[in-house]
């Protein structure tokens, strides 16, 4: 995962679906670039692990990670400059609500990444039982049509490491 330092310079970052906190490690490599950071995850275990790692590195008694749900983010409207959801939407049953929540709390930009976007028009409903978990493969044409419906500017970049990976950057500051 590689987000340019320029996208984060002097920005507050909300990392939704942060898992065990690896993104914070990555962002810290940039030095004191980010003005504020918070990580949210649905898993108590991941929040506990992420906070323990962060507290050990910083020598503090508290960490920046909290429990949170991508479909109901407990943050004020436009309270974070950048909202990141790295490989989170594949773990949810539907992306519409999580994306709208991210857009609601972001002032400037949202960054979404996917491991599994399919080039065909229909989704692969692996995760169609209403339960969250790994396995929701979404259609790139449907996803991009959804982004267009939000009337925002967005940019797509695809990288290839061990397989294709898609980055979508939504910029709320630049009208479509």
In brief:
The strands form two sheets. The chain has a seven-stranded mixed sheet with strand order 3-2-1-4-5-9-8. A two-stranded parallel sheet has the order 6-7.
Features:
single chain; alpha/beta; 9 strands
What secondary-structure arrangement, pairings included, does this model have?
Blueprint: H1 5-8, E1 12-16, H2 22-28, E2 36-41, H3 44-58, E3 65-67, E4 80-86, H4 96-105, E5 106-114, E6 117-118, E7 138-139, H5 140-149, E8 152-160, E9 164-175
Parallel strand pairs: 1-2, 1-4, 2-3, 4-5, 6-7
Antiparallel strand pairs: 5-9, 8-9
Mind explaining what this structure looks like?
The chain is of the alpha/beta class and 176 residues long. Helices cover 26% and strands 31% of the residues. The chain has helices spanning 5-8, 22-28, 44-58, 96-105, 140-149; strands spanning 12-16, 36-41, 65-67, 80-86, 106-114, 117-118, 138-139, 152-160, 164-175. The two termini are 26 Å apart. The model has no long low-confidence stretch (mean pLDDT 86).
What is the count of helical runs? Answer: 5
**Could you report the average pLDDT, rounded to the nearest whole number?**
86
Q: Order of strands in the sheet with the most strands? A: 3-2-1-4-5-9-8
Query: Which percent band covers the strand fraction?
Result: 25-35%
User: What's the helix-strand series?
Assistant: HEHEHEEHEEEHEE
Structural class call reads alpha/beta
Shape: globular
Low-pLDDT stretches: none
**Could you tell me the radius of gyration in angstroms?**
16 Å
Q: Estimate the helix proportion, in percent.
A: 25-40%
**The biggest beta sheet, please?**
7 strands, mixed
């Amino acid at each position: 995962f590689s987000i340019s330092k320029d996208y984060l310079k002097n920005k507050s970052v909300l990392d939704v679906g942060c898992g065990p906190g690896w993104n914070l490690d990555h962002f810290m490599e940039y030095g004191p670039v980010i003005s504020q950071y918070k990580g949210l995850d649905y898993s108590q275990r991941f929040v506990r692990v992420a906070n323990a790692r962060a507290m050990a590195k910083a020598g503090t008694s508290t960490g920046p990670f909290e429990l949170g749900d991508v479909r109901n983010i407990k943050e004020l409207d436009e309270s974070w400059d950048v909202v990141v959801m790295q490989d989170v939407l594949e773990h949810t049953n539907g992306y519409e609500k999580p994306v709208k929540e991210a857009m609601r709390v972001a002032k400037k930009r949202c960054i979404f990444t996917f491991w599994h976007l399919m080039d065909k028009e229909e989704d692969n409903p692996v995760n169609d039982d209403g339960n969250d978990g790994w396995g929701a493969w979404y259609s790139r044409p449907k996803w991009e049509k959804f982004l267009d419906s939000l009337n925002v500017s967005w940019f797509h970049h695809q990288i290839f490491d061990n397989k294709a990976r898609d980055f979508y950057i939504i910029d709320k500051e630049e009208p479509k």
